[in-house]
Amino acid sequence: MALLRSYKKLTNPNLVPLSKSLSPSSSSNLEHHHSIPTFQLTQIPYGFPKIHTSASHTDAETICKVLSNTRDSTVDASLRNVPVTASPELVVEVLNRLSNAGVLALSFFRWAEKQEGFKHTTESFHALIEALGKIRQFKMIWSLVDDMNRRKLLTGNTFSFVARRYTRAKKVDEAVETFEKMEKYGLKPQVLDFNRLIDVLCKSKFVEKAQEVFDKMRQLGLTPDIKSYTILLEGWSQQQNLLRVDEVCREMKDEGFELDVVAYCIIINAYCKAKKYDEAIGFYHEMQAKGTRPSPHIYSTLISGLGSDKRLHEALEFFEKSKASGFAPDAPTYNAVVGAYCHSMQIDDAYRMVDEMKKHGIGPNSRTCDIILHHLIKARRIEQACLVFERMSDEWGCEPTLSTYEIMVRMFCNEERLDAAMAVWDQMKAKGLLPGINMFSMLIIALCHENKLDEASKYFQQMLDAGIRPPSKMFSTFKYALINSGMENTALYFALKIDKLRKSPLVAWHK
């Protein structure tokens, strides 16, 4: 899609198309209008194995295209004539792609179970747990854990998947209780399991709780290893709590652990986040003095930090050091340089780095483009941002990710160019990407503010069809916009749909 041309066209108010109308007086008409939901499919989330088998990838795309226009209750019928054979790799890849559509993922999981000769693996259960956790179906998740136990597929890592979804839902006590239940299933927690729990808590920013778990581990007679300390160090680093970072460092040394390159990388990152760049550089020199070779990640951290402080000259000096260090050129380091140039609004130099990445065969990637887009949009250079978005696929050979589409949709919503936002959404949909609740909320609320309630209703219905329950604040905005425009019946229709979604938990899985 030539997005820049589309944007210019859409800036002419005389060319804005009329929206299709949903009847405000007939719930049955609305139900019929949206009888076919549209599911977009997501990328593989972090933590799941990526499937590289080309046949599996092709078959997964085939299945997902079929499921993109299927209600969960008709999955069996829709896949009846699909010419693919269920395999563990295929099922995991499809479930990963459906991670933002938990109801549909469950139906596909059940479909796979019924295929001749197929047996679910630990990985397919984990992929389903991830999808169901996003819609907070924890009763169903524990039913799956019980079934995994019966099939002897349960591992210690299963509990970290469950705990991670609890922490994302801000149910911290339940996350800790998840690991306490391991013994009920015949698994005695070891240091590795505690490390997983500490990691889950730290990554969800519950570092105080992670510290409690760390202390409890020692009370149970388990000795933390260097991984335990490193995870905790990372947690306090992300909180920019330098006092606790220094405390953990001292404790590591007292226990006989020397700071390694990973620990130094975390410390340097912590000081950069706290904007204490001179101290961060001091740690860089300290590790060099100790004979510890800086990693590419340390260089990219310093380049990114100094660049964000508009200390571009120093950032570029570390870029030269990284090139002289003997490491092969890598995308993260170049992305840091791109960001450094962007912070100083030297966009042409950022483009030059993109050309260098192409010459080295290391990119650009979607992260590179997201960085440039972020700075262009912040500077209100909207047309340039549109050009970068086009160049991604047409010239630079990197496909936009869900993050990229979210950046562009937000930009057009903020610019009150909702037709362009919906055009980008349609492009995302054509690529098979499923947006999450934040992206749905952003577009629906923007449509409400512009009184485009027919379109808002369409996207709200898609969200419900994906099994995503809207936040109360967002639904209130949508509901009152409908009521204030005389669409009380439509508001009532959606209120009933949400109530039904709330009161209709998923049916437990049975073998």
Automatic annotation (TrEMBL):
Ranges for the PPR repeats: 155-189, 190-224, 225-259, 260-294, 295-329, 330-364, 401-435, 436-470
InterPro entries: PPR_P_subfamily, PPR_rpt, TPR-like_helical_dom_sf
Keyword terms, alphabetized: Repeat
Keyword Repeat: yes
One Pfam family from the record: PPR
Classification via NCBIfam families: PPR (TIGR00756)
Similarity field: Belongs to the PPR family. P subfamily.
PANTHER family: MITOCHONDRIAL GROUP I INTRON SPLICING FACTOR CCM1, MITOCHONDRIAL GROUP I INTRON SPLICING FACTOR DMR1
Protein's name in the database: Pentatricopeptide repeat-containing protein At1g71060, mitochondrial-like
Species assigned in the record: Abrus precatorius (Indian licorice)
This protein's encoding gene: LOC113871874
